[in-house]
Design goal:
Layout (H helix, E strand, L loop, with lengths): L2 E4 L10 H6 L5 E2 L18 H15 L3 E5 L2 H12 L4 E6 L13 H6 L4 H11 L2 H10 L4 H10 L2 H13 L4 H6 L10 E6 L8 H11 L2 E5 L6 H4 L1 H14 L2
Parallel strand pairs: 1-2, 1-3, 3-4, 4-5, 5-6
Helix pairs in contact: 2-3, 5-8, 6-7
């Protein structure tokens, strides 16, 4: 059965390239989210539920349960599928489980994107800026320079549209609603990972509490932040491989 690694925002599947290079297994699939480096299908509204449905379709096409791993919003979609479509999954890993904590509050960028007018202005300004400026912004929040350059080149009006729609579909109480059935994720072996220095997911306590509700193991990555797959891909690969190997 393959491993499927799902990226987040504002990224492309390239976020996984350094980590995949460290994995011993070769059956790894890194799909590209619609609108994030490739056009979204006609009529795709880019809400969180539409992305979950899209990912479910990708897994159905594989035809067997997978080792599913998600980073950032990819991790959110993984959590939702772990709760609602366990038959598609052998194991799951997410680094954003803290978002399901009842006390979680969206970070400043998310609140900007969720604000009508301000979000649109951010997209206009960001798309109009040189690639180098967009890359500098990403580096400032922890993305490695090479990956930042690749992500920046993919940031266009379509990605901006999808960012706004996705985050607006997830304005509270949407995450509270997703977290209401968190216990269902225990149907499959799960692992919650979190970078100890991640400023976007509410802190390690939120992730630890969510791991208990999800029936999952917990791994804190000390010294790493939100973009842990880029910051220390060898360590990230080791954490994943040890988890996969522990599951019969």
């Amino acid at each position: 059965m393959p491993a499927v690694l799902v990226h987040g925002n504002p990224e492309t599947a390239a976020v996984w390239d350094p980590l995949v290079a460290e994995l011993a297994r070769t059956d790894v699939i890194t799909p590209t989210l619609p609108g994030f480096g490739r056009p979204a299908p006609d009529g795709f509204g880019a809400t969180k539920e539409e992305y979950v449905d899209w990912l479910a379709g990708e897994l159905e096409a594989i035809g067997e349960p997978v080792d599913l791993v998600g980073h950032d919003w990819g991790g959110g979609f993984v959590l939702r599928l772990a709760c609602t479509r366990p038959e598609l999954i052998r194991t799951w890993v997410s680094d954003v489980a803290g978002l399901l904590d009842p006390e979680y509050t969206w970070h400043d960028f998310a609140q900007l994107w969720q604000t009508p007018g301000a979000g649109e202005q951010w997209v206009t300004d960001t798309v109009a800026a040189p690639d180098s400026d967009r890359a500098d912004l990403l580096v400032a929040v922890g993305v490695t320079p090479d990956a930042a350059a690749e992500f920046a080149a993919a940031m266009d009006e379509e990605m901006g549209r999808c960012i706004l729609a996705l985050y607006r579909s997830a304005a509270q109480p949407a995450l509270l609603e997703w977290g209401a059935d968190a216990e269902a994720a225990a149907a499959r072996p799960g692992l919650v990972v979190v970078g100890a220095d991640d400023p976007f997911t509410g802190g390690t306590d939120f992730s630890r509490r969510s791991a208990v509700r999800l029936g999952a193991r917990f791994e804190e990555l000390d010294g790493l932040g939100h973009w842990w797959p880029l910051q220390d891909p060898a360590r990230g690969a080791r954490v994943l491989e040890e988890f996969w190997a522990s599951v019969p």
